[in-house]
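Database export, one record per block. Field names are fixed; values are copied verbatim from the stored entry.
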Amino acid sequence: MNDTLIKVDGVSKKFCRSLKKSLWYGLQDLGSELRGRRHGGNGQLRADEFWAVSDVSLELSRGECLGLIGHNGAGKTTLLRMLNGLIKPDQGRIEIRGKVGALIALGAGFNPILTGRENIYTNASVLGLSKRVVDAKLDEIIDFSEIGDFIDTPVQSYSSGMSVRLGFSVAAVLIEPDVLILDEVLAVGDIGFVIKCLNTMRRLTANSAVVFVSHNMQFISSFCTRVMVMKHGVTLLDSPNPAEGIDRYFALVKHEQQTSGTGEAQVLGLDLLVNGEMLTGEEPSIPQGSPATAVLRMQVNGPRACAHASLFIMDETMVPLVCVPIHDAYSQMLCLPPGEHLLEIPLGIIDLNAGKYSFVVSILDANTSIGLARVQGLRPFRVFSDRTQWGKIVRPAVPKFRDIPGNISPFSG
Protein backbone atom coordinates (compact mmCIF):
# COMPACT_ATOMS: atom_id res chain seq x y z
CA MET A 1 0.00 0.00 0.00
CA ASN A 2 1.32 3.45 -0.95
CA ASP A 3 1.42 5.50 2.25
CA THR A 4 2.67 8.72 0.65
CA LEU A 5 0.87 11.56 2.40
CA ILE A 6 2.59 14.59 0.84
CA LYS A 7 3.49 14.95 -2.82
CA VAL A 8 4.86 18.24 -4.13
CA ASP A 9 5.65 18.46 -7.83
CA GLY A 10 7.46 21.48 -9.31
CA VAL A 11 5.86 24.02 -6.99
CA SER A 12 6.77 27.70 -7.40
CA LYS A 13 5.48 30.90 -5.81
CA LYS A 14 6.29 34.49 -6.72
CA PHE A 15 5.75 37.73 -4.85
CA CYS A 16 5.98 41.41 -5.73
CA ARG A 17 8.17 43.92 -3.90
CA SER A 18 5.77 46.80 -4.64
CA LEU A 19 2.43 46.86 -2.79
CA LYS A 20 0.62 48.85 -5.50
CA LYS A 21 1.86 46.58 -8.27
CA SER A 22 1.06 43.52 -6.15
CA LEU A 23 -2.58 44.63 -5.82
CA TRP A 24 -2.77 45.29 -9.58
CA TYR A 25 -1.19 41.94 -10.43
CA GLY A 26 -3.62 40.25 -8.04
CA LEU A 27 -6.58 41.72 -9.91
CA GLN A 28 -5.06 40.60 -13.21
CA ASP A 29 -4.54 37.06 -11.90
CA LEU A 30 -8.09 36.95 -10.55
CA GLY A 31 -9.41 38.01 -13.94
CA SER A 32 -7.31 35.33 -15.64
CA GLU A 33 -8.70 32.66 -13.31
CA LEU A 34 -12.26 33.76 -13.98
CA ARG A 35 -11.54 33.27 -17.70
CA GLY A 36 -10.18 29.79 -16.99
CA ARG A 37 -6.50 30.65 -17.47
CA ARG A 38 -3.56 29.53 -15.36
CA HIS A 39 -3.10 31.24 -11.99
CA GLY A 40 0.07 33.33 -11.98
CA GLY A 41 0.57 33.37 -15.72
CA ASN A 42 2.93 31.12 -17.66
CA GLY A 43 5.96 31.46 -15.42
CA GLN A 44 7.29 34.81 -16.52
CA LEU A 45 8.13 37.44 -13.93
CA ARG A 46 6.58 40.88 -14.17
CA ALA A 47 8.22 44.10 -12.98
CA ASP A 48 9.29 43.95 -9.29
CA GLU A 49 8.35 40.26 -8.96
CA PHE A 50 10.66 37.53 -7.66
CA TRP A 51 10.45 33.79 -6.99
CA ALA A 52 10.06 33.11 -3.26
CA VAL A 53 9.90 29.36 -4.04
CA SER A 54 11.11 27.95 -7.34
CA ASP A 55 10.46 24.44 -8.73
CA VAL A 56 10.42 22.52 -5.44
CA SER A 57 9.49 18.82 -5.47
CA LEU A 58 9.29 16.28 -2.65
CA GLU A 59 7.41 13.22 -1.41
CA LEU A 60 6.86 12.29 2.22
CA SER A 61 5.36 9.13 3.72
CA ARG A 62 3.88 8.35 7.11
CA GLY A 63 6.58 8.09 9.78
CA GLU A 64 9.01 10.34 7.88
CA CYS A 65 10.11 13.72 9.17
CA LEU A 66 11.56 16.22 6.69
CA GLY A 67 13.75 18.92 8.20
CA LEU A 68 13.43 22.08 6.12
CA ILE A 69 16.43 24.31 6.78
CA GLY A 70 17.97 27.44 5.31
CA HIS A 71 18.68 30.99 6.34
CA ASN A 72 16.08 33.76 6.55
CA GLY A 73 14.49 34.42 3.17
CA ALA A 74 15.17 30.91 1.86
CA GLY A 75 11.46 30.26 1.17
CA LYS A 76 10.77 27.79 3.99
CA THR A 77 7.72 29.48 5.50
CA THR A 78 6.27 30.24 2.04
CA LEU A 79 6.46 26.53 1.21
CA LEU A 80 4.79 25.63 4.51
CA ARG A 81 1.95 28.07 3.85
CA MET A 82 1.35 26.48 0.47
CA LEU A 83 1.34 23.02 2.04
CA ASN A 84 -1.20 24.25 4.59
CA GLY A 85 -3.39 25.80 1.90
CA LEU A 86 -2.99 29.37 3.14
CA ILE A 87 -1.65 30.54 -0.23
CA LYS A 88 -1.82 29.06 -3.72
CA PRO A 89 1.21 28.06 -5.77
CA ASP A 90 1.72 29.88 -9.06
CA GLN A 91 3.08 26.72 -10.66
CA GLY A 92 3.17 23.05 -9.82
CA ARG A 93 0.90 20.73 -7.88
CA ILE A 94 0.50 19.78 -4.20
CA GLU A 95 -1.29 16.60 -3.09
CA ILE A 96 -1.93 15.90 0.60
CA ARG A 97 -3.79 12.90 2.00
CA GLY A 98 -5.37 12.81 5.45
CA LYS A 99 -5.93 15.37 8.19
CA VAL A 100 -3.49 18.27 8.26
CA GLY A 101 -2.27 19.90 11.45
CA ALA A 102 -0.15 23.03 11.18
CA LEU A 103 1.69 24.72 14.02
CA ILE A 104 2.63 28.01 12.35
CA ALA A 105 2.72 31.38 14.15
CA LEU A 106 1.45 29.92 17.42
CA GLY A 107 -0.99 32.20 19.20
CA ALA A 108 -1.32 34.54 16.21
CA GLY A 109 -5.06 33.80 15.97
CA PHE A 110 -5.88 34.66 19.58
CA ASN A 111 -8.40 37.41 20.27
CA PRO A 112 -6.62 39.82 22.65
CA ILE A 113 -9.85 40.84 24.37
CA LEU A 114 -10.91 37.29 25.22
CA THR A 115 -9.43 35.32 28.09
CA GLY A 116 -7.09 32.39 27.62
CA ARG A 117 -9.93 29.97 28.41
CA GLU A 118 -12.24 31.60 25.85
CA ASN A 119 -9.51 31.56 23.23
CA ILE A 120 -9.04 27.81 23.75
CA TYR A 121 -12.67 27.20 22.78
CA THR A 122 -12.42 29.65 19.86
CA ASN A 123 -9.30 27.97 18.47
CA ALA A 124 -10.86 24.54 18.90
CA SER A 125 -13.94 25.57 16.94
CA VAL A 126 -11.67 26.74 14.10
CA LEU A 127 -10.10 23.27 14.15
CA GLY A 128 -13.61 21.78 13.82
CA LEU A 129 -13.78 20.38 17.35
CA SER A 130 -16.94 20.37 19.44
CA LYS A 131 -17.30 21.97 22.88
CA ARG A 132 -17.73 18.50 24.39
CA VAL A 133 -14.30 17.43 23.11
CA VAL A 134 -12.68 20.60 24.47
CA ASP A 135 -14.40 20.22 27.84
CA ALA A 136 -12.85 16.77 28.20
CA LYS A 137 -9.33 18.08 27.50
CA LEU A 138 -9.51 21.59 28.95
CA ASP A 139 -7.67 20.78 32.18
CA GLU A 140 -4.94 18.99 30.22
CA ILE A 141 -4.45 22.04 27.97
CA ILE A 142 -4.23 24.42 30.93
CA ASP A 143 -1.81 22.16 32.82
CA PHE A 144 0.38 21.76 29.73
CA SER A 145 0.56 25.52 29.10
CA GLU A 146 1.59 26.26 32.71
CA ILE A 147 -0.43 29.48 32.48
CA GLY A 148 -2.04 28.77 35.85
CA ASP A 149 -4.10 31.59 37.35
CA PHE A 150 -3.77 33.68 34.17
CA ILE A 151 -6.06 31.39 32.16
CA ASP A 152 -9.04 33.67 32.90
CA THR A 153 -7.09 36.85 32.14
CA PRO A 154 -7.45 38.61 28.74
CA VAL A 155 -4.74 37.48 26.34
CA GLN A 156 -3.74 41.09 25.65
CA SER A 157 -2.09 41.11 29.09
CA TYR A 158 -0.04 37.97 28.33
CA SER A 159 3.64 38.09 27.52
CA SER A 160 4.61 36.85 24.06
CA GLY A 161 5.97 33.67 25.65
CA MET A 162 2.69 32.97 27.46
CA SER A 163 0.71 33.38 24.22
CA VAL A 164 2.98 31.02 22.36
CA ARG A 165 2.82 28.43 25.14
CA LEU A 166 -0.97 28.53 25.18
CA GLY A 167 -1.05 28.22 21.39
CA PHE A 168 1.27 25.22 21.46
CA SER A 169 -0.76 23.59 24.22
CA VAL A 170 -4.01 23.89 22.27
CA ALA A 171 -2.42 22.43 19.16
CA ALA A 172 -0.47 19.70 20.97
CA VAL A 173 -3.38 18.38 23.02
CA LEU A 174 -6.18 18.67 20.43
CA ILE A 175 -4.51 17.81 17.11
CA GLU A 176 -4.05 14.18 15.98
CA PRO A 177 -3.05 14.75 12.32
CA ASP A 178 -1.85 12.56 9.46
CA VAL A 179 0.26 15.45 8.14
CA LEU A 180 2.00 17.71 10.62
CA ILE A 181 3.57 21.06 9.65
CA LEU A 182 5.82 22.67 12.25
CA ASP A 183 7.44 26.09 11.96
CA GLU A 184 9.89 26.90 14.80
CA VAL A 185 7.37 25.64 17.35
CA LEU A 186 9.99 24.37 19.80
CA ALA A 187 11.45 27.84 20.43
CA VAL A 188 8.96 28.41 23.26
CA GLY A 189 9.44 28.99 26.94
CA ASP A 190 12.18 27.87 29.28
CA ILE A 191 14.11 24.62 29.06
CA GLY A 192 11.56 22.69 31.12
CA PHE A 193 8.74 23.63 28.76
CA VAL A 194 10.93 22.91 25.71
CA ILE A 195 11.57 19.37 26.97
CA LYS A 196 7.84 18.90 27.44
CA CYS A 197 7.29 20.13 23.87
CA LEU A 198 9.96 17.75 22.56
CA ASN A 199 8.28 14.74 24.16
CA THR A 200 4.90 15.79 22.78
CA MET A 201 6.26 16.29 19.28
CA ARG A 202 7.84 12.83 19.33
CA ARG A 203 4.42 11.39 20.12
CA LEU A 204 2.73 13.38 17.36
CA THR A 205 5.34 12.56 14.73
CA ALA A 206 5.27 8.79 15.31
CA ASN A 207 2.24 8.25 13.02
CA SER A 208 2.40 11.33 10.82
CA ALA A 209 4.29 12.70 7.84
CA VAL A 210 6.06 15.73 9.28
CA VAL A 211 7.58 18.85 7.74
CA PHE A 212 9.66 20.59 10.38
CA VAL A 213 11.30 24.03 10.03
CA SER A 214 13.90 25.06 12.60
CA HIS A 215 17.18 26.93 12.90
CA ASN A 216 18.14 24.66 15.80
CA MET A 217 20.31 21.91 14.35
CA GLN A 218 20.01 19.79 17.50
CA PHE A 219 16.26 19.55 16.91
CA ILE A 220 16.79 18.79 13.23
CA SER A 221 19.30 16.05 14.04
CA SER A 222 17.07 14.54 16.74
CA PHE A 223 13.77 14.51 14.87
CA CYS A 224 14.38 14.31 11.16
CA THR A 225 14.83 11.33 8.86
CA ARG A 226 15.55 13.61 5.87
CA VAL A 227 16.81 17.15 5.41
CA MET A 228 16.10 19.63 2.62
CA VAL A 229 18.32 22.71 2.39
CA MET A 230 16.87 25.78 0.66
CA LYS A 231 18.44 29.03 -0.50
CA HIS A 232 16.57 31.87 -2.24
CA GLY A 233 13.61 29.57 -2.90
CA VAL A 234 15.66 26.83 -4.57
CA THR A 235 16.39 23.35 -3.21
CA LEU A 236 20.15 22.97 -2.74
CA LEU A 237 20.04 19.49 -1.22
CA ASP A 238 17.47 16.84 -0.34
CA SER A 239 19.28 14.10 1.56
CA PRO A 240 18.22 11.07 3.63
CA ASN A 241 21.32 11.77 5.75
CA PRO A 242 20.52 14.62 8.17
CA ALA A 243 24.22 15.12 8.96
CA GLU A 244 24.93 15.84 5.29
CA GLY A 245 22.13 18.41 5.16
CA ILE A 246 23.26 20.10 8.37
CA ASP A 247 26.83 20.32 7.07
CA ARG A 248 25.53 21.93 3.85
CA TYR A 249 23.50 24.39 5.92
CA PHE A 250 26.57 25.45 7.89
CA ALA A 251 28.47 25.85 4.62
CA LEU A 252 26.10 28.72 3.77
CA VAL A 253 27.40 30.77 6.72
CA LYS A 254 29.93 33.36 5.59
CA HIS A 255 32.73 34.40 7.95
CA GLU A 256 34.15 37.74 6.89
CA GLN A 257 37.75 38.45 7.85
CA GLN A 258 38.17 41.66 9.85
CA THR A 259 41.36 43.28 11.14
CA SER A 260 41.84 45.83 13.91
CA GLY A 261 44.63 47.09 16.19
CA THR A 262 47.50 49.56 15.92
CA GLY A 263 49.03 47.76 12.95
CA GLU A 264 52.31 47.14 14.78
CA ALA A 265 51.81 43.40 14.30
CA GLN A 266 50.40 41.34 11.43
CA VAL A 267 48.94 37.86 11.09
CA LEU A 268 50.55 36.52 7.91
CA GLY A 269 48.67 33.25 7.78
CA LEU A 270 47.00 30.44 9.70
CA ASP A 271 46.76 26.82 8.58
CA LEU A 272 45.36 23.65 10.13
CA LEU A 273 47.00 20.28 10.46
CA VAL A 274 44.48 17.48 11.09
CA ASN A 275 45.74 13.95 11.68
CA GLY A 276 49.15 15.25 10.61
CA GLU A 277 47.96 16.51 7.20
CA MET A 278 47.60 20.12 6.07
CA LEU A 279 43.98 20.99 5.24
CA THR A 280 43.27 22.44 1.81
CA GLY A 281 40.24 24.15 0.36
CA GLU A 282 38.39 27.30 1.32
CA GLU A 283 36.25 25.72 4.08
CA PRO A 284 37.53 22.21 4.87
CA SER A 285 35.47 19.74 6.88
CA ILE A 286 36.99 18.06 9.95
CA PRO A 287 35.60 14.81 11.40
CA GLN A 288 34.58 15.32 15.01
CA GLY A 289 37.20 13.85 17.38
CA SER A 290 40.23 14.46 15.14
CA PRO A 291 43.51 15.79 16.61
CA ALA A 292 44.45 19.19 15.19
CA THR A 293 47.32 21.67 15.21
CA ALA A 294 47.22 25.34 14.19
CA VAL A 295 50.19 26.71 12.26
CA LEU A 296 50.37 30.46 12.88
CA ARG A 297 52.65 32.82 10.99
CA MET A 298 52.88 36.33 12.38
CA GLN A 299 55.04 39.45 12.38
CA VAL A 300 55.82 41.75 15.33
CA ASN A 301 57.24 45.17 14.44
CA GLY A 302 59.47 47.41 16.57
CA PRO A 303 59.83 49.21 18.86
CA ARG A 304 57.70 46.79 20.90
CA ALA A 305 60.06 44.66 22.94
CA CYS A 306 57.66 41.81 23.57
CA ALA A 307 54.21 40.76 22.41
CA HIS A 308 51.74 38.15 23.65
CA ALA A 309 49.48 36.18 21.33
CA SER A 310 46.28 34.22 21.87
CA LEU A 311 44.17 32.06 19.59
CA PHE A 312 40.39 31.71 19.81
CA ILE A 313 37.94 29.37 18.07
CA MET A 314 34.62 31.08 17.34
CA ASP A 315 31.28 29.61 16.27
CA GLU A 316 29.13 30.86 13.38
CA THR A 317 27.71 33.67 15.56
CA MET A 318 31.26 34.78 16.51
CA VAL A 319 30.88 33.57 20.10
CA PRO A 320 34.28 32.45 21.49
CA LEU A 321 34.23 28.76 22.42
CA VAL A 322 37.91 27.90 22.90
CA CYS A 323 40.69 30.18 24.15
CA VAL A 324 44.30 29.13 23.51
CA PRO A 325 46.77 31.52 25.16
CA ILE A 326 50.23 30.82 23.72
CA HIS A 327 52.54 29.88 26.61
CA ASP A 328 56.22 29.09 27.03
CA ALA A 329 57.61 25.96 28.70
CA TYR A 330 57.03 27.52 32.14
CA SER A 331 53.29 28.12 31.64
CA GLN A 332 53.84 31.86 31.20
CA MET A 333 52.66 33.89 28.23
CA LEU A 334 55.26 33.45 25.48
CA CYS A 335 57.30 36.61 24.80
CA LEU A 336 57.43 37.25 21.05
CA PRO A 337 60.17 39.78 20.15
CA PRO A 338 60.12 41.89 16.98
CA GLY A 339 60.44 39.81 13.84
CA GLU A 340 58.60 37.04 11.99
CA HIS A 341 57.44 33.96 13.89
CA LEU A 342 56.13 30.57 12.74
CA LEU A 343 54.36 28.73 15.58
CA GLU A 344 52.84 25.24 15.72
CA ILE A 345 50.06 25.36 18.33
CA PRO A 346 48.55 22.01 19.42
CA LEU A 347 44.76 22.23 19.73
CA GLY A 348 44.20 18.70 20.99
CA ILE A 349 41.11 16.75 19.97
CA ILE A 350 38.49 18.72 18.06
CA ASP A 351 35.51 17.88 20.25
CA LEU A 352 33.34 20.73 18.99
CA ASN A 353 29.78 20.00 17.97
CA ALA A 354 28.87 19.78 14.29
CA GLY A 355 28.91 23.30 12.90
CA LYS A 356 30.98 26.03 11.30
CA TYR A 357 33.88 27.71 13.06
CA SER A 358 36.75 30.11 12.47
CA PHE A 359 39.78 31.49 14.30
CA VAL A 360 40.57 34.82 15.90
CA VAL A 361 44.19 35.80 16.60
CA SER A 362 44.88 38.52 19.15
CA ILE A 363 48.36 40.10 19.59
CA LEU A 364 48.92 42.45 22.53
CA ASP A 365 51.85 44.46 23.84
CA ALA A 366 53.22 42.49 26.79
CA ASN A 367 53.69 45.58 28.97
CA THR A 368 50.72 47.82 28.15
CA SER A 369 48.18 45.29 26.78
CA ILE A 370 47.63 47.61 23.81
CA GLY A 371 46.10 45.67 20.92
CA LEU A 372 48.69 45.47 18.18
CA ALA A 373 46.57 43.26 15.92
CA ARG A 374 43.32 41.36 16.07
CA VAL A 375 42.15 39.34 13.07
CA GLN A 376 38.83 37.48 13.10
CA GLY A 377 37.30 35.11 10.56
CA LEU A 378 40.60 33.33 9.93
CA ARG A 379 40.67 29.86 8.37
CA PRO A 380 36.97 28.97 8.55
CA PHE A 381 36.29 25.24 8.85
CA ARG A 382 33.39 22.90 9.50
CA VAL A 383 33.13 20.06 11.97
CA PHE A 384 31.26 17.06 10.60
CA SER A 385 29.46 14.50 12.74
CA ASP A 386 26.84 11.83 12.07
CA ARG A 387 24.67 13.51 14.67
CA THR A 388 24.44 17.01 16.05
CA GLN A 389 24.45 16.71 19.84
CA TRP A 390 23.38 19.14 22.54
CA GLY A 391 26.02 21.61 23.64
CA LYS A 392 28.97 23.18 21.88
CA ILE A 393 31.49 20.64 23.17
CA VAL A 394 30.94 16.90 22.60
CA ARG A 395 33.23 14.79 24.75
CA PRO A 396 32.23 11.09 24.89
CA ALA A 397 33.27 9.27 28.06
CA VAL A 398 33.45 5.61 29.04
CA PRO A 399 32.40 5.33 32.71
CA LYS A 400 34.22 3.22 35.26
CA PHE A 401 31.71 1.05 37.08
CA ARG A 402 32.14 0.75 40.82
CA ASP A 403 30.50 -1.85 43.02
CA ILE A 404 27.69 -0.69 45.28
CA PRO A 405 27.59 -2.51 48.63
CA GLY A 406 24.79 -5.07 48.60
CA ASN A 407 24.37 -4.96 44.81
CA ILE A 408 25.76 -7.30 42.17
CA SER A 409 27.90 -5.56 39.58
CA PRO A 410 26.78 -6.22 35.96
CA PHE A 411 30.41 -7.03 35.18
CA SER A 412 31.04 -9.45 38.04
CA GLY A 413 30.84 -13.20 37.53
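Remark 1: The domain at 258-384 is CATH 2.70.50.60 (Coagulation Factor XIII; Chain A, domain 1).
Remark 2: DSSP finds eight helices and 19 strands in the chain.
End of record.
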